[in-house]
Design a protein that fits this description.
With 97 residues, the protein is an all-alpha fold. It is built from four helices and no strands. It is elongated, with a radius of gyration of 17 Å.
């Protein structure tokens, strides 16, 4: 198998999604699922073109995970005055205590 631009775009979107998921701010982290979803058509097409059912199943699982991320970060109704969706809490650990 040579260079496949479909997998290259899928890999790039996946790498961007992974990097965004580790961002320090919520404003950047919420974009991880969008970047992940952008790469899924390329993964699904590539898996279909190669005829790999295991890769197709894996791509569908990732699709479900990225859709859940969009649900949590974009589509859930927000509380008034709250930057985070309902049911999402954060833990702050203070060093030296």
């Amino acid at each position: 198998m040579g260079f496949d631009p479909f997998f290259a775009v899928g890999l790039l979107c996946g790498a961007v999604a992974a990097a965004l998921s580790q961002a320090r701010t919520d404003a950047l982290r919420r974009w991880a699922c969008v970047a992940g979803l952008a790469g899924q058509p390329f993964w699904l097409y590539g898996a279909w073109a190669l005829g790999q059912p295991a890769l197709q199943a894996c791509a569908l699982l990732y699709l479900a995970a990225w859709l859940r991320g969009c649900w949590v970060h974009w589509w859930l109704p927000r509380r008034r005055g709250s930057a985070s969706p309902p049911g999402l809490g954060t833990i702050q650990i203070t060093p030296g205590r």
